[in-house]
Write a structure and sequence with these properties.
Length: about 550
Amino acid sequence: MLELLQINYLVKIKIRLIAFVYLIFFGSLVSTGSVVNADQDNIKAHGFNFFGELKYPNDFQHLDYVNPNAPKGGEISIWGFGTFDSMNPYSRKGRAASLSSAPFESLLVETGDEIGSSYGLLAESIEYPADQKWVIFQLRKEAKFSDGTPVTADDVAFTYNLFLDQGLPSYRAVLAEIVQGVEVLGPYTIKYTFSDQASKRDAIPIVGGLPVKSQAWFERSQARLDESRMEPAIGSGPYILDSFEINRWVKYRRNPEYWGASLPINRGRANFDEIRVEYFADTNAAFEAFKSGAYTMRVENSSKSWATAYDFPALNDGHVVKKLMPDGGIANGQSFVMNLRREKFSDIRVRKALSYLFNFEWSRESLFYGQYARINSFWENSDLAASGLPSSEEMKLLSPLESDLPSGVLTQDAVMAPVSGTKPMDRANLRKYDFDIITDQFPMSYEPSSGLKQYFGSDTADDSVFNSMGLKSSAVDALIEHVVAAENKSDLKVAVKALDRTLRAYNFWIPQWYNDQHRVAYWDMYEHPEEIAPYDLGYLDYWWYNEGKAKALKDAGFLRQ
């Protein structure tokens, strides 16, 4: 899922590190291909799925959404905004280059067509007891770093301690809370023991998702994880840094000696020989560069550009493809968020009134060219969004909390964003107020867990960058505990819906908009499977290069040779 790595690292930390906490896959059910040791009641498997069986069995040959026979070769180029002065994406210091995380792999990896499933990558197998107090990873002996040295359990233990000592503070705190100890049991075997306060649903995804570093490289270079540097650390992944010109471009190339190319989890993936990122300080300049062929793949984030700017000869003549592709992900919860720490927002009637100030319907037609839908739920674009009156199952969770809930949660339909109509309204008298509102996001997952506490928990209201509105609610705290404690998908869905309708009833946000489709434009030399992964557009991951089409474009002078 390499395209996610384009995101500015500090923004990505907000989304992905919290996602580590609640993109959970460790549950009480034994997955397909699992083996239970009768003597010790341990479970051993090739992967895990939260609340159910893995889609892919132990002997699967490739992921369903890839072309296992996709040709290797060619270049794909994208654009980056601003500048870069570091090849270390794990530090707040400096501006890390786009895709600088790409060379690194983890013990476990998710797929783009399942919710909560994860499979061994550097790890060949995983073992844990019924009480989930520890986990043992058995590493693949064939796994190697790009310099040819093996990936060992010592490297994994070193990585954990490196992040614990030099990682971002928020991530260090998570590791320190959940891990009691790390033990190297053999050259390719490592054991994590979890603390008593660690959530069983959080611990393994976090340690399994750590990007494994080479202990030898760090000791030899004396580099630190928390320092900006242009020398990249070596990784074990399919791509390595090829070359760069600071603030202009960076290029990665596929490692021809990549150890994991034939793994079932990797077949039909990492198909491009080169990935290049062209940098621009201006979005208009970036678009003009795409039109000229300076780079060849673009995901459009401007509704205005999508509606009005894609009218140029190369597109009109069929040399550039413009298309909408489905996006099955949950909307990111983008919204105007009110600061509940301020007295002016203490009255819920004020917050409700403010929600009517934003005329989304007029904005959609007049500003967004009709391209967006309104966000109503923190789990918009999923079956976890609350609707209508609470179900009987939800009432079992909500009724005991009635005295602490906002009025109407039990008796009224789930709060929806107000509808204003498309006719402009006179809001001059309202514009003179300072409402202390910021634009923020609440990126939720299909299987949330204790990461919800960082967004909505009372304990985080005064010091968390994620609980930007400063929400303190004993009812919300109790409902989060129900989500964390859910033992199956049905219970999880009920708990999330109850939490969703309660959060919406507090009216601390003015939800904005989302799009359930990717807006994609590219020069017509790339191909993809007929059906893409529902949760991963994957253009850097499993698309491929059509050499014949590329040659025709180059011969005609549209692209550089």
